[in-house]
Amino acid sequence: MMRSVWATLMSVWLLFAVIAVLAWTRQQPAPTQSPLVVVKGKNGTQTLVPATASPTTHATTRTSPVPAG
Amino acid sequence: MIGATTSTAVPVAWLVARAAGLTALALLSASLWLGLAMSVRLLPPRRQKSLMGWHQTLMWCGLSMVALHGIALLLDPVMHFSIAVVLVPGLAPWRPLAVSAGVVTAWLMLALASSFHVRRRITQRRWRLIHYSGFAAFALALGHGLTAGTDLRGTTGLLVAGGLAAPIVWLVYARILVPRAQPARRQATPGTA
Lengths: 69, 193
Prior knowledge:
heterodimer; A: alpha+beta; two-stranded antiparallel ribbon; 1 helix; about 35% helix; B: mainly alpha; globular
């Protein structure tokens, strides 16, 4: 009886683990490799800092109405 | 909701089908390893009864995963598999040979798992004959995974296949080389693999 319970639990956990691995490997986010920038400190030290890209979209402020037509 | 209708949704049925198939292959292999290890007396003979129980239970768990594999394929909105395709070999429109190998494996596993319960009613020769079909089931399952599956392709597939088959080849080799115990000398349980 206990053997069946253990075997069932083991099988279900194995199934979940495989599902997790398959789901994880399915998601393939595009690697965003940001360039590194050398930042010079006041005391002459240089540190590499990943340059964060500026957002591609900007919030615009419309000052005049859109011309009709 | 099971399955996916758009490319962005998670294809649950497809994921479950693949995972259940891989798990079933792992459990079938484990059951076969255990049976062979008992057969060559690699494991302690005094635990023969307990090990035999594990051998049997692993086969039933593997069969349950095969059932889940089939049900998930039935529910998958992309594959469009019918019950007949899942149960009868040769009816699949998609890769019929590869799918048939999987269907035959399922039936062989059912025969193997059921044979444990009718062992006393059938002759030792018949029991052995049914049990030898475990090798065929393993070979077909591996072939099914390598040809129909999407996860055992390329180098990864070959590595997994090698990892699962290597212990079986080694144990079969040991089974052939190791002389069997004389039944008159010791009152051991009959062979298992």
